[in-house]
Amino acid sequence: MSTPPTGLAGTVRTVLGDIRPEDLGVCDAHDHLFFKSPQLPGQELRDAFAARAELAAFRAQGGGGVVQWTPYGLGRRAADLPPLTRDTGVHVVAATGLHQAAHYTPESLTELRGRLAEVFVSELTTGIGTSGVRAGLIKVAGGFHALDAHARWTMTAAAEAHHATGAPIAVHLELSTGALDVLDLLCGELGVPPHRVILGHLNRSPDFVVQRVAAEAGAYLAFDGPSRAHHATDWRMPDAVRALADAGFGRRLLLGGDTTTAAARSVDGGPGMPYLLRRVRPRLEVALGKELVDRILTENAGRAFAVEWR
């Protein structure tokens, strides 16, 4: 079993600069202010006014920080992020990285061949495009119960960028599958410390065995996104989180909202970012107690995204 550092060492790289982990506040560990993909036509998150309203609504519920997992090429609008955090008082962390191949044109991926790790490192250390905004994490993605060649390429580049910078790697797990394959590749073959890996979407499958094995390995487990009818999320998620906490892995847990479409925003009638604190938080407090839920939203998030930057 890998044991992560116990303190809140390092700094969290926000769009306004590096901050102490304890200053991140109550954190939505996985969400999106801006996002566009050919997989979601007509549902792009590209309205800066709506993004500001969403952040303000999250702030009104006690939120202090949001980690945007939108990676390279999917409409991050990095230059718009600093004004949003200044206007709302919510810290924002931006991402570099690459999603599944289906979210890109073949031509755009060809352009990145041979230089993907270099792009990641540049966006972590110099800035995203001409915005000057530095990313604070690397986002990559697995496939459904497998890692295809694209996933292995992107994760290899992510590992190289991690070794160069120390940045954490956040992983989209397709319908919560493939977690152990991801850890075998990133941590086993590529040498990334497990406590620098954040596994996303563990809420979408109630596989307690896989969740526990991943926690024992030392990774962070993110339960992120409100319920859909075909996902075992809200109604089973408290049991999964409680089982991990009872087994001694409360320090490895993260919570997020994962708003990926305009219709899902609270300002457009959806659950949006505030749902995490308005509905998920009190439900988990019943299962886990307020003290642990507070630590998951604050200390755990600060520890997961804090880095001794190289």
Task: Give a written overview of the molecule.
- InterPro entries: Metal_Hydrolase, Phosphotriesterase.
- This is Phosphotriesterase.
- It comes from Streptomyces dengpaensis.
- Belongs to the metallo-dependent hydrolases superfamily. Phosphotriesterase family.
- It holds the Pfam family PTE.
- It contains ten helices and eleven strands.
- It is an alpha/beta fold and 310 residues long.
- It has one domain: Metal-dependent hydrolases (TIM Barrel).
- Strands 6-7-8-9-10-11 form a six-stranded parallel β-sheet. A three-stranded parallel β-sheet has the order 3-4-5. It has a two-stranded antiparallel ribbon with strand order 1-2.
- Helix 4 packs parallel to helix 5 and helix 8 packs across helix 9.
- The chain starts with 11 loop residues before the first strand and ends in a 5-residue tail after the last helix.
> Architecture in CATH?
Alpha-Beta Barrel
Number of domains: 1
The count of helical stretches stands at 10
What class would the helix/strand composition place it in? alpha/beta
Can you tell me the residue ranges where pLDDT is under 50 for at least 5 consecutive residues?
Answer: none
Categorize the overall geometry. Answer: globular
Overall strand count: 11
The CATH homology group name: Metal-dependent hydrolases
Organism: Streptomyces dengpaensis
InterPro entries: Metal_Hydrolase, Phosphotriesterase
Keywords: Hydrolase, Metal-binding
Pfam family, one: PTE
